[in-house]
Every structure is written in structure tokens, then in C-alpha cells.
Amino acid sequence: MFWKHPKFLRAIRIAIPLLLTLLWLGFIFGNSMKDAQASSEQSGQVQQIVNDLASSVGIKEPISESTVRNMAHFTEFFILGILLCLDVWALGLSPLHARRRFDILWLLVSLPLAFLLASLDEFLQTFSEGRAAAFLDVLTDTAGASLGIALFIALFFLLRLAVRKKNVTT
């Protein structure tokens, strides 16, 4: 049974995170390729949902479309930051109990890659009618990715610590 072979399992552990990242990038870049009118309509729909949720919890002030767009940028790249860390981990396949130090690679590889992808995302917008690139959006995207990367690393270290404690007690 080939699916139980270690090389096949390793390939699957690498392929799944990479595929998820590529699909997520497709989603991000797809949003950037929308023209200004379609993008504004989509933001308006999300803004309505956000304002409905906000008012249901007692927030009276409406949330602007600009704020919704910034939250969307931040969230898209927050998720991308986590996925990029998962890719780096999958490529290194550092087990939780290992003493190898792939951890620093998450920052050294994931963050600059997120910045480059955010820059590419903004560049792609220049090809859509009525849209332009904004360096502030690149910074917002990078901040989102940074938080995702930090969260991934923190959770990874906590999980590694728990596994090591379990191994010591057993």
C-alpha cells in the first residue's frame, strides 16, 4: 500500500500546506484583480455585515468602508502569514520534539516573503480599472502577516514545550 510509504506521507505533508497557500494566494490576487466598481460593491456588502454585527453588540458608530478594507487586508495576510510558516515547517518537517532550529526560518523566510507578496498584490491592482497601488496597504498586509507569523511561532513553541514535558514525564 503506497499511501503508507514514508516518502508518500512526507510528500503529502509538504503538498497540502503548499496547496492551501497557493489557493489562498489565488483568493487574495483574485480580489486584487477586480475592477474598482466590483471591489467597492464587495466592500459595501462586507461593510453592511460588519455594521450589522457591530450594532448587535451595541456599537452605535458605523464602521467606514476604509476601515473594512483595512481589516480585510490585515486579515487576508494574517492568514497568509500562518500559511507561510506552515509551509516552512512542512518543508523542514521539524518534529515537535526535535532540537533542530528551524524556528528562526519562519521569521527569516516568511516575513520578507509576505512583504514581497503584499507588494505584488498591490502591483496587480494597477492592472484593474479604477484601482491603484498604495504602500500603506503593503504595510497593513505586512503587519497582518507579522501577527500571523508571531502567533504561529508562539503556538508552535507552546506545543513543542507540551510535547517535551509529556516525553519527560513518560
Q: What's the number of domains?
A: 1
**DSSP strand tally:** 0
Major sheet details: none
The percentage helix is over 70%
Strand content: under 5%
- How many DSSP H or I helices? 5
Structural shape: globular
Low-confidence stretches: none
Task: Report on the architecture of this protein.
It is a single chain. This protein has helices spanning 6-32, 36-56, 65-92, 103-125, 135-169. Helices cover 79% and strands 0% of the residues. The protein has one domain (2-169). The two termini are 33 Å apart. It has 5 helices and no strands. It has 170 residues and is mainly alpha-helical. The mean pLDDT is 88.
Give the topology:
Blueprint: H1 6-32, H2 36-56, H3 65-92, H4 103-125, H5 135-169
Quick structural gist:
The chain has 170 residues and is an all-alpha fold. It has helices spanning 6-32, 36-56, 65-92, 103-125, 135-169.
Descriptive tags:
mainly alpha; 170 residues
